[in-house]
Each structure stands twice: as structure tokens, then as C-alpha cells.
């Protein structure tokens, strides 16, 4: 982790700026400072420092390094690991891997009529996992299709969003054989459908470069109260945020192989209680 200094200054044009600089002075980024609304120009120093820290990690720091590492992974030969509560919670595999093919066979044996095909996109991911948090109650199989949900999927699960991210998930209960759909939506869409939850999440998240949401639907027009929030940030910021809020950091920090493979961070937000209930980290590696 590179240590940085953050300073406030006035640009040559007379505008307030906030600057993040490495201790040796070799790298820096600057932003136009965020000001408090009012007649006089008063810099919101905390907001400005958070924003320049976000910009630093996007352009120079660990978020940039993580994205460069992830882009080098072949999506058709991928293993995604989800960490939660300090341990591995789930491992997803590309459908073309040996592990992925075995899981796809189970999907085809029981749910062959659910969608036209589980294997149209080699980037699709599958996983088997136990019930670790609501609304899951039994062992399940997860399937992620890296295409925007079809009209048939939207209709089946009563999804009427105006914007969708270009992938979605299906969750198959291996006991009841019920199916849930996880629709991934951008932040602006979450703000439209549930502005109260959106704004509360934004106020509570650590400093990050972007975030988006996923909402679970069943076939009976139920949208579950637990919403997944995904975001990028630096590991040291995440660690501080977890400590300050008494959250369990998602993985073993003594394992130095995990941080370089971080794909994204996540948390489960309960829209009824307005609290984060589970904190997660996702890594991606090539098999």
C-alpha cells in the first residue's frame, strides 16, 4: 500500500482543489474541491478528501491494479471466490471448466426447462453453496448468465426495471426446486425504485469508485428485503471501515494472496432494518 498526503490548495484559476500525492512526490492526482452550498466558497474538506482518495485509487492505487489484474483473466476459465465472515463462502466456476461442467449437468437434469440453455455464453458462472443468509434456506446452485435478462425472464420473475446491468443470476433450491432470480441494476435505477434505501447505502458505504445493486425476485411477485450492494475500494479503506463499524472483515488478512485478486467488494443491505448484515469480498483467478 502506498502512503499518500492529501492537501488543499487554490488553482492558478482561483478554484479550490484537493491534491493527493505520494510521499516521494512521484505521483499525484487532483480534483476540484467539493464546496459547501452557500454564498461564500467554503470547502467541504472531508468530502473532498474522500473524493480525491477515490480518484487516487481509481487512477494510481489498488483499485487500478486490481482491475488490470482482473482484465488479464480468461473469463472462460475463471474461478470466483466469495469470502464472508473470514472464510470462503462460495466458489463459482466458468461453465467450461471441469468443476463448472459437473454443476451444469445438475442444472440440466432438474431445471432444463427454466431457460433455453445454460451454456450459450462461455463466461457464465455456476456454483454450489449452503444457505448462509436469508432468503436462502437450503443448499442451492447459483447460475450467472452474462447477458441482459430476456423478456421471458423478466416476465417470469415480475421484473419491471428501466435499466439492467448486462448480467443476471438464477438461484436454484436443491430441496424445494424453487428458483429465484437476481437482477443486477445500476445505482441510478436503485435510486429510482427505492430512493430511501439508495441514499442510506450511499451515506454508509466506504470511499469507493462506483457501486451497483442486485435484487432478488421470486415467481410470486416478491422482491426480497435483502439487497446486494457491490462496490470497489482499496483494501485498507475497507479494513478501516469494517473496524469503525464493528463489521467482520470478509477474509483472513494474513493471506497475502487474496488482496491482489480482489474483483469487487459486496455487502447485504436489509431494506427494512436499514442495516448491512453481511460483508463480502470477491476474488477472480484463472484456473
Q: Can you count the helices?
A: 7
Number of domains: 2
The radius of gyration computed from the alpha-carbon positions, rounded to a whole number of angstroms, is 21 Å
User: What is the molecular shape?
Assistant: globular
Task: Characterise the protein shown here.
- The protein is of the alpha+beta class.
- It contains 7 helices and 15 strands.
- The longest helix has 15 residues.
- The radius of gyration is 21 Å and the shape is globular.
- 32% of the residues are buried.
Keywords, please?
single chain, 287 residues, alpha+beta, 2 domains, ten-stranded antiparallel barrel, three-stranded antiparallel beta sheet, 25% helix
Short recap of the structure:
With 287 residues, this protein is an alpha+beta fold.
List the helices and strands and how they pair.
Elements: E1 4-10, E2 16-22, E3 28-32, E4 35-36, E5 42-43, H1 45-59, H2 62-71, E6 78-84, E7 87-94, H3 98-111, E8 125-129, E9 140-145, H4 151-156, E10 168-173, E11 179-186, H5 187-193, H6 195-204, E12 211-217, E13 226-231, H7 235-244, E14 262-270, E15 275-286
Antiparallel strand pairs: 1-2, 2-3, 4-5, 6-7, 6-15, 7-8, 8-9, 9-10, 10-11, 11-12, 12-13, 13-14, 14-15
Helix pairs in contact: 5-6
Amino acid at each position: 500500500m502506498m502512503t499518500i498526503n492529501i492537501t488543499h490548495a487554490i488553482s492558478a484559476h482561483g478554484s479550490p482543489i484537493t491534491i493527493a500525492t505520494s510521499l516521494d512526490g512521484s505521483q499525484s492526482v487532483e480534483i476540484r474541491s467539493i464546496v459547501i452550498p452557500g454564498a461564500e466558497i467554503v470547502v467541504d474538506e472531508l468530502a473532498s478528501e474522500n473524493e480525491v482518495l477515490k480518484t487516487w485509487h481509481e487512477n494510481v492505487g489498488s483499485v487500478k491494479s486490481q482491475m488490470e489484474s482482473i482484465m488479464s483473466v480468461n473469463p472462460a476459465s475463471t474461478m470466483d471466490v466469495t469470502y464472508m465472515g473470514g472464510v470462503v463462502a462460495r466458489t463459482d466456476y466458468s461453465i467450461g471448466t471441469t468443476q463448472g461442467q459437473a454443476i451444469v449437468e445438475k442444472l440440466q437434469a432438474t431445471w432444463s426447462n427454466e431457460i433455453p440453455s445454460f451454456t450459450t455464453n462461455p463466461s457464465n458462472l455456476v456454483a454450489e453453496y449452503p444457505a448462509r443468509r436469508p432468503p436462502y434456506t437450503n443448499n442451492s446452485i447459483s447460475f450467472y448468465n452474462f447477458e441482459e435478462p430476456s423478456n421471458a425472464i423478466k416476465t417470469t420473475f415480475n421484473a419491471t426495471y428501466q435499466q439492467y446491468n448486462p448480467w443476471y443470476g438464477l438461484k436454484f433450491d436443491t430441496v424445494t426446486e424453487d428458483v429465484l432470480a437476481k437482477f443486477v441494476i445500476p445505482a441510478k435505477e436503485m435510486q429510482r425504485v427505492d430512493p430511501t434505501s439508495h441514499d442510506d447505502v450511499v451515506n454508509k458505504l466506504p470511499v469507493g469508485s462506483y457501486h451497483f445493486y442486485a435484487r432478488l425476485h421470486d415467481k410470486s411477485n416478491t422482491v426480497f428485503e435483502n439487497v446486494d450492494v457491490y462496490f470497489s475500494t482499496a483494501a485498507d479503506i475497507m479494513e478501516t471501515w469494517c473496524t469503525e463499524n464493528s463489521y467482520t472483515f470478509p477474509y483472513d488478512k494474513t493471506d497475502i494472496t487474496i488482496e491482489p485478486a480482489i474483483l469487487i467488494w459486496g455487502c447485504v443491505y436489509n431494506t427494512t432494518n436499514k442495516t448491512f448484515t453481511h460483508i463480502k469480498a470477491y476474488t477472480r483467478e484463472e484456473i
